[in-house]
Amino acid sequence: MLLCLSAASVLMLFWIYDGYGRCLRMLCLLHHRSVVIDVDSVADSALPSVTVLLTVHNEQAVVRSRIENVLACDYPADRLTLLVASDGSTDETAAIVRELAQRDARVQLLESPGLGKTGTQNLAITRINSEVIVFTDADAEFRTDWLRRTAAYFLDPTVGAVDGRLTRQVAASGSIQASEGRYWVYEMLLRRLESQLGILAVVSGAAFALRRSAFVPMDPAIGEDCVVPLDVVSQGLRVEHVPDAVAFEKLPEDLTVTLRRRVRMTLRNWQGTWSRPALLNPFRHPGYAFALWSHKLLRWLSPVFVIVAFASAALRSAISPGILSFAMLIPWAALFLLAGIHAVSRGKRIVPGAGFAWSFLLVNCAFLLGVAQAVRGQRISRYR
Q1: Cα separation, 179 vs 172, whole angstroms
Q2: Is 163 within 8 Å of 208 (Cβ atoms)?
Q3: Other CB atoms within 10 Å distance of the CB of residue 115
């Protein structure tokens, strides 16, 4: 029994962090959609009108450069608007936006009284009439062709949302941030493969575009990166991932900030995914159910599989010592030992793999905390 529990948990972890990607590759070899838009051949007059929605809270340090980055994008000026929604900012964020709005009529300011990010987005979108809405964050940065490469896909009426390739810039090598950067490379691979198969229902909140007519008002406690693509595919529209539409995001160097963000994202996304249960039903939506369970829900449950695999291996070693029992336990002992070495050495690269082991355990702790908070019914709708 213990052997079966351990083996099943290890197999689930393999599927989550490697096997699912291999399966998608094989499926793409057998059958995949080829959706490529020749952006260079699309005339300016054919491009849809776009409003970039930048939701901020106390971002005076970066809001100016972020606005300038959006305005510098290669997109027809008469088809581009930048709406900055300042949610209860108490610093100079709003003043900076007003100054820039006086210089460029494309810049607009909306101030909300602390509704939280999602609540402020709901309010802002009621004032948007453009064909396409672009969601982005203050700490992101678009490559100059990002808007053109994503907007061109909306010339296809079956496309409801477009996800760009968000590249995370790591400032602290050998830490949890560095490992998260490696994990993000795998995440982008999964999205590209799911998009090719037509089963993508995930986007990056810092860099994605939405057809305005496909917008559904959001629960303030659920993030737009989770619920918007689910609502898009529920309407029979597609979510496309465009690897050539590149945006950048710098990961915070502070470990506590990184972990708190991961817990918060897990909490909000767990609740958001379960708020659309029909998409998780393999009999109603087999492709999307397969992708959502493998890509999202099982990944958030991976700490449960870690605990079961380790506990069953340790218990078997105590009850029935032997070669097989110790073989089951050694990988977990090595994982915890390497993580301990990394913690004691304060992040110095003393033993190869120690940083990865430390990061893996910390991220799984964040997953566990986020899911536990979601199960308890905790909701986060405002900034902390």
Answers
A1: 10
A2: yes
A3: 19
Task: For residue range 201-239, list pLDDT tens digits in order.
Answer: 999 999 999 999 999 999 999 999 999 999 999 999 999
How far apart, in Å, are the Cα atoms of 358 and each of 145, 227, 278, 332, 352?
37, 31, 37, 12, 12
Q: Closest Cα partner for 57 from 99, 117, 109?
A: 117
Please, what are the domains in the chain?
39-254 (3.90.550.10)
Token code pair at residue 242: 């465009």
* Residue type for position 328: M
Q: Which residues pair with 211 in a beta bridge?
A: 132
CA distance 375 to 301: 12
Q: Are 60 and 96 in contact (CB under 8 A)?
A: yes
Q: Where are the beta strands (DSSP E) in the chain?
A: 50-56, 80-87, 107-112, 132-136, 140-142, 159-169, 207-211, 238-250
Contact 106, 177 (CB under 8 A): no
The set of long-range contacts for 255-258, using a CB threshold of 8 Å and a minimum separation of 24, is 255/175, 255/176, 255/177, 255/362, 258/176, 258/177, 258/180
Give the model's pLDDT for residue 174: 45
* 23 against 347, higher pLDDT: 23
The answer to whether the CB of 309 falls within 8 A of the CB of 16 is no
Q: Are 269 and 226 in contact (CB under 8 A)?
A: yes
Average pLDDT over residues 125-145: 97
Q: How many CB atoms lie within 10 A of CB 381?
A: 14
Q: What distance in Å separates the CA atoms of residue 168 and residue 184, rounded to the nearest whole number?
A: 7
DSSP class of 152? G
Q: How far is CA 309 from the centre of its chain?
A: 27
User: Mean per-residue pLDDT for 293-307?
Assistant: 97
- Is residue 324 scored above 70 in pLDDT? yes
Mutual angle of helices 255-274 and 354-375, in 10-degree steps: 40
